[in-house]
Write a structure and sequence with these properties.
Number of helices of chain A: 11
Mean pLDDT of chain A: 95
Radius of gyration of chain A: 19 Å
Helix content of chain A: 25-40%
Low-confidence stretches of chain A: none
Largest sheet of chain A: 7 strands, mixed
Strand order of the largest sheet of chain A: 6-5-4-7-10-15-16
Largest interface: A-B, 54 and 54 residues
Shape of chain A: globular
Strand content of chain A: 15-25%
Oligomer: homodimer
Chain lengths: 346, 346
């Protein structure tokens, strides 16, 4: 390496809270249209989360926190607090960040009297937002140290600024490697059915100026076997106490391919994604989504309307296949009950 | 099992030669439209193969044979024979059946004088067609014996009557298991980028009355790990002398998942797909197709038009991951240089 100055990149802003309103880039329209949604109630936030206008485990946690605060600004009562919390927690089942964030805002709100409830909730939502931004920056640093030798990496789904505040999780590591002038190229999977790779990851990588090639999901294993990349790095939606990882469907197959090729398979995410109450991956509820997502691609029918489909949104990668779990508090390596619990205790 | 009568199913007819014309179902329009193309020259057949209106390694071999015969019917001369053969062989690079079939029809045509050349070519094309139908039936029988215990199987891409004359290859085994009342359900992968699974396999399975669920490609590994299927069965585009298998991109990942789950990974294809001139999978040319196929799904843009893509059409599965190769002459098991050469010599 030459002693060149590090590059500077500017991440996209997926969420911002301004003047009593939560503004969220509608991720269902990207990359074709950049439209910010104006969200002013818990119901609007829950709906945006449900239809994936806001997505990514850390980002939906932050959005849900603001959702509680927005609702309390309209009606600052304990009854409204409970209703808003339930509505938001029920929006999606797999990511633990959503319920953790709502629990945190609820506790802060319950600590104060009715007159201060809305302000307390908003302050806590802002604190969660800020914590996640700090976590993203720390994940980027730890991950880039771990993968300092990787010139080409493969990533799955979207794990950038559109998935987590700051620069994201796995894609924050990618951006950091690029800024440190380590990285030459990224292979990005399209991530059917909702195409977060083709739509969101390529959009973010383009904005960051990072060279990349898009591939269909099933091309990944063969390209990994053929030596196209030096590492695979993905995010996570929930990490069990034993280190098993629930993440976007297809992650497990990438882990198998990385193991067969003898390259690192790295998972990046904030410790808020670790769920010690969940002993192993077998206990993680896998969200089954609308079969219509499989029947179509961005509205285009791909099969006959009566075709029966299965549409699991996530799969579970056993801890044994994960080279390292990178969090804002450092890395678990090897990944197992002991290293996971150490991270969570710090 | 009860001693119930076997079921009877009727496969779709992908190709038929009648009254001097080759009729081919346009597979690019299925399942939304059932349209037969009327092909009357080698150029029309080559174009149909190139744009995947006719596809599947054995089926393009048969179509190419008729293509030579059609051209000789228009102009029964040795010069035309050579031009037609070159045109058809150049239509697609990976499947060995195409050149093998053209070589066979050319040899038959060269054995007779100019007055008999067209008739000899047509007779040979019909013989190839009939041979492939017999091969399909035999593959179905051998495969169903091998997988007699499989109640649920996963298959990739399309390997039915739309890919090979008769009932196909891997899907012929599936149909045979269904007729024998062994099978409960099939999981079919959509097979991006060209969606042969969503468009063609579901179409065939529906017509055969076989219960099935369509999944995105990257859902396969997790479902295999979760015990959803008892076996994986796929076709092949070229088998090397050592048993390495080139097949639709994504096949290698399915083989890894089957191995990890301890279930059989079975490859089905006629011995015409075995290429003894190709020592290992490393020597198989992998067709790189138009990046536009990754950027779109059935015409619908999935990403911005300037996104850089990689689009390998096939990958290579090492012989060690293949439980058995089922051919019309029986099965190679374990799969290796010795068992492969024995099948080819029979």
């Amino acid at each position: 390496m030459t002693a060149t100055e590090p590059r500077r990149t500017e991440p996209v802003v997926a969420l911002r809270f301004e003047a009593g309103t939560l503004w969220a880039l509608d991720q269902t329209l990207l990359p074709f249209q950049e439209l910010e949604l104006r969200l002013r109630s818990a119901g609007e936030v829950a709906e945006a989360i449900r239809r994936l206008a806001i997505r990514g485990a850390p980002l939906i946690g932050v959005a849900a926190g603001y959702g509680v605060a927005l609702e309390l600004a309209r009606d600052p009562t304990p009854g409204t607090l409970e209703r808003a919390c339930r509505l938001l927690v029920d929006a999606r089942p797999t990511a633990v960040n959503l319920s953790a964030s709502v629990t945190r805002v609820r506790a802060a709100a319950l600590e104060v009297g009715t007159e201060g409830i809305a302000a307390a909730a908003l302050a806590e939502a802002r604190a969660i937002h800020s914590d996640e931004q700090d976590a993203s920056a720390a994940i980027a640093t730890h991950g880039a140290e771990l993968l300092a030798a990787a010139g080409a990496v493969l990533t799955h789904c979207n794990t950038g600024a559109l998935a987590a505040p700051g620069r994201g999780t796995a894609l924050a590591v990618v951006a950091e490697l690029w800024e440190r002038r380590r990285l030459r190229q990224v292979l990005a999977t399209e991530s059917r059915p909702l195409l977060q790779g083709s739509r969101l990851t390529t959009y973010e990588l383009s904005r960051l100026g990072i060279p990349h090639r898009l591939i269909v999901d099933s091309a990944a294993a063969g390209l990994i076997a053929g030596g196209s990349v030096d590492a695979v790095i993905v995010g996570c939606d929930r990490v069990a106490a034993n280190g098993d990882v629930a993440n976007k469907v297809g992650t497990y197959g990438l882990a198998l391919a990385a193991e067969a090729a003898g390259i690192p398979f790295v998972v990046a995410g904030p410790t808020s994604t670790i769920d010690l109450a969940c002993p192993t991956g077998a206990e993680i509820e896998i969200e089954q989504r609308d079969p219509e997502e499989v029947r179509r691609a961005l509205g285009q029918p791909l099969t006959l309307p009566d075709t029966s489909c299965l549409n699991p949104a996530f799969d579970v990668t056993p801890a044994a296949l994960v080279t390292a779990l990178v969090t804002e508090r450092g890395s678990a390596r090897p990944v197992g009950a002991e290293s996971i619990s150490r991270l969570k205790r710090i």
